[in-house]
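In this notebook, the sequence line spells out the residues, with the fold written below as integer tokens. This is how one looks.
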Amino acid sequence: MLDKSVKHLSGSVVVIGLGRFGTGVAKSLVELGHDVLAIEHDADTVQSLSLVLPHVVQGDTTDLETLRQLAVPDFAHAVVSIGGNLEASVLTILNLSQLGLKDIWAKAIDPQHGRIAERVGAHHVVYPEADMGERVAHLVTGKMIDFIEFDDGFAIAKTRAPMETHNKPLSQSNVRKRHGITVVGIKRRHVDFIYAKAETEVKPGDHLIVAGPTRMVERFASLY
């Protein structure tokens, strides 16, 4: 999902399309201290968000001149969050590409939308509904308490410590060698976060923060 990626963006960002996803991205970017211009075609939506976002304007981003008038070419990044209108999404991405933006993120509703977005100039395509569906599936099974997967097949998860790690230092249970994952930290009830070291002992009831290739993280979580 893009929400987990915005913290890696630096500088100014234009967010186009203020549905639930676009609004969430814009708010997160503002909270992280970035200079954000939010653009939405619907006047009522712009009005409702005017007290939430510092710079929100109404505009038709399928019109190249509108983007120029809003100084969009001066922004370092663009996020196109127009999911329901394929034509508007594609034309907006094409316009941004023609204006020379070097980092264009696009929300897509399906793989076909994503492929078209890439062909007309999007550098990154995200599928928030699909990503959230996978995340919820992991949580519903009870194997993981939280789960984040990155684009390159790498994941971080919070999971219950399996029995094989109980009452042993991490150097003895050796989960890195046996399961291909790294224990980053331990969350223990009523105790501050514990940064994992070789001598750190895992107790029954501990939650482990683990990182590694997605399938290995999933397999490790299933041990509980």
About this structure: Residues 1-10 have pLDDT under 50 and may be disordered.
